[in-house]
Every structure is written in structure tokens, then in C-alpha cells.
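Section 5: illustrative case.
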């Protein structure tokens, strides 16, 4: 199977890249394992025209619209491996089939590692990473900001816009003098005894248990999980990575070109700030850039 481009990941970034190439009438293969990062949330917010829509509904509609273009093939499964081959990239799919593309776009997203076990069942419901995505829905409730990296204090500074906030240092991420003063001016309480467990029915949170046995009321918990690029393909292809606040991401230039020729990347996997609109915009850029590079190659071929 030979394509102009293989796109790995069929969520916000991948679908946005795919539709640009499909509209340019290029032959493409969209490979998607169907595990978008926001699948734990019932509703997605802040996405133009889709505020409050279920993530699965947004994806279904994107896929339906892309399916109208005849030059697109779909594979529901995983791209297991990739390597540069000739003037393109060969990808091995989970059914054993090998696909070859003149270009590849990596839109695989990231995987989240939460700092506490009891956060997992609450992820996307009462344990949240982004106040712009879900803060409005928990407005005026007691909010806990549980630190998981050195930048956590900046998230805690924002949160009083949504509700009364306590910043939990976890005994590790102590604010410096200036930060402590900023937190105080914003009305954020600081708690230094680590949270060891979240309490509440099902996916809800009602309180936090601290290491000294105390219970502190909290109905929404914000934290920043550690992230890793969800697939080894970029490493296999030799792409360079950059360090972001929560984990590494694939390094790209302003047109989503990675450090490896013919390999583009977009979305959460290739940027430090994670948001559906930003992922979609980067996907558009990756699709257009991949198309332009095909055109340039064809125009300059002898
Ligand atoms: C709980 C939660 C709620 C969120 N809510 C919001 C919100 O309300 N608003 C907002 O703007 N943002 C929200 N976000 C952020 C948003 O989900 C991400 O920014 C967005 O999903 C990134 O899109 P993406 O296309 O880069 O990656 P993803 O959406 O994560 O999609 C990546 C896709 O690639 C597939 N994939 C990975 N590796 C392979 C492989 N090797 N082969 C085949 N397929 C592969 C995955 O299965 C997945 O389908 C939320 C995030 C979380 C964690």
C-alpha cells in the first residue's frame, strides 16, 4: 500500500491534517487506535462551535466528514513501527500489513501518568488538568491544586477565578517567597502536609486525606499529570524531542516539520501546551506543510 501521506492518530490533530490533504486530493492513510486523550470526560469545552459537546460526538462528525473524500483509506488499529525507507516512510500496522507513505504525520497525542492512584477513577470528572476546559463546571466549589511539578504554583494562582483554592505542595513544590506572597494576594491557602488519598463516591471527590490523617474538603482537584508521547514511532524514526513542563514532546519547527526529513508531527505530542483547538490548528499546519513539501518535491524532480 503506497500513499502520499500516512497520518498516525485520528483525533483533533490527525483529522485536521487529514482533511487538508484529502481536499488536496492526495492519497492518504489515516491510522487510529481510537484512544483520544479526553475520552474520560463527558463534555469538551472551549472548542469553537462545539462547547459542551461530547468528545466522541466531535470525533464521529469529523470522521464522517473526512469519509466523504474518496482518496482517504482508514485503518482502525495501531501503527506499531516506522522507519524511513527510500524517499518516504514505511509503517507496520497492527494487522501485519506494511504501508508506505511519501510523508508521515505523527498525531499520536500523549499519555497521562497521574500522581496518586485514587485520582485514576476520577480523571476527567473531578480530577482535572485544565481550568479553561472544566473550571467553569466546578465554579464556586472548594478547589485543590495538587502540585506535581515546579510550575504548579502558576496553575494555583489562576484557580481562584473559579473557586476557593488550596495549594498542596505535597511537601516538595514549596513556593518561593515571592510566589507565596502572590498566592496570598490571590487568596490561595497553602497546605504542606501531602495528600495521600482522594475520598468520595465513584468519580466524585468530596475530600482529601492528608498524611497526618486530617480530611480537607475539596470537590475539584487540579493537577498536572506527567505526560509522555503516546507512541514510540517518533523515537524509532529518530526525531528530536524537547522538554515541556509536564514531559517531553516531539520538536517541530513553525510548520510542524520534525528534525527528520519527510516526518511531520502535530497536536499534544508535538507541543508543550495541550488543548483541542491548538492541536487542531497544528494539525492543519502539518497537513498543509506535508502537501507543500510533496508539491515542491514534484516540481523540482528531474
Ligand atoms: C480529561 C481531559 C479532558 C480534556 N478536556 C478538554 C477540553 O474540554 N477542551 C480542550 O480544548 N482540551 C481538552 N483536553 C485536551 C485535549 O484532549 C487534547 O489537547 C487533544 O485531545 C489533543 O489532540 P491530539 O489529536 O493531539 O491527541 P489525542 O486526542 O490524544 O489523539 C491521539 C490519537 O492517536 C491515537 N494513537 C496514538 N498512537 C497511535 C499509534 N501508534 N497508532 C494508531 N493510533 C495511535 C490514539 O489512540 C488517539 O486516538 C482534555 C484532556 C484531558 C486529559
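Designed sequence:
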Amino acid at each position: 500500500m503506497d500513499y502520499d501521506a500516512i497520518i498516525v492518530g485520528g483525533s483533533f490533530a490527525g483529522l485536521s491534517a487529514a482533511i487538508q490533504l484529502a481536499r488536496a486530493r492526495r492519497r492518504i492513510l489515516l491510522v487510529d487506535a481510537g484512544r483520544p486523550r479526553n475520552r474520560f470526560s463527558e463534555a469538551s469545552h472551549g472548542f469553537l462551535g462545539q462547547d459542551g459537546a461530547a468528545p466522541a460526538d466531535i470525533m464521529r462528525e469529523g470522521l464522517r466528514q473526512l469519509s466523504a473524500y474518496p482518496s482517504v483509506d482508514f485503518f482502525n488499529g495501531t501503527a506499531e513501527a516506522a522507519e524511513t525507507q527510500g524517499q518516504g516512510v514505511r509503517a507496520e500496522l497492527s494487522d501485519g500489513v506494511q504501508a508506505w507513505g511519501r510523508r508521515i504525520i505523527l498525531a499520536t497525542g500523549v499519555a497521562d501518568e497521574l500522581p496518586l492512584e485514587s485520582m485514576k477513577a476520577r480523571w476527567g470528572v473531578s480530577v482535572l488538568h485544565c481550568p479553561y476546559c472544566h473550571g467553569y463546571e466546578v465554579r464556586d466549589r472548594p478547589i485543590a491544586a495538587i502540585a506535581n511539578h515546579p510550575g504548579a504554583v502558576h496553575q494555583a494562582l489562576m484557580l481562584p477565578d473559579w473557586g476557593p483554592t488550596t495549594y498542596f505542595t505535597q511537601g516538595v513544590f514549596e513556593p518561593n517567597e515571592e510566589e507565596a506572597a502572590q498566592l496570598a494576594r490571590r487568596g490561595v491557602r497553602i497546605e504542606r502536609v501531602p495528600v495521600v488519598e482522594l475520598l468520595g463516591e465513584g468519580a466524585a471527590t468530596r475530600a482529601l486525606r492528608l498524611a497526618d490523617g486530617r480530611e480537607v474538603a475539596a470537590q475539584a482537584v487540579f493537577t498536572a499529570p506527567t505526560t509522555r508521547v503516546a507512541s514510540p514511532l517518533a523515537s524509532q524514526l529518530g526525531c528530536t524531542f524537547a522538554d515541556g513542563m509536564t514531559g517531553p514532546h516531539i520538536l517541530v519547527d513553525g510548520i510542524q516539520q520534525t528534525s527528520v526529513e519527510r516526518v511531520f508531527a502535530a497536536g499534544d505530542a508535538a507541543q508543550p501546551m495541550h488543548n483541542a483547538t491548538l492541536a487542531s490548528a497544528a494539525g492543519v499546519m502539518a497537513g498543509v506543510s506535508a502537501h507543500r513539501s510533496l508539491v515542491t518535491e514534484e516540481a523540482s524532480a528531474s
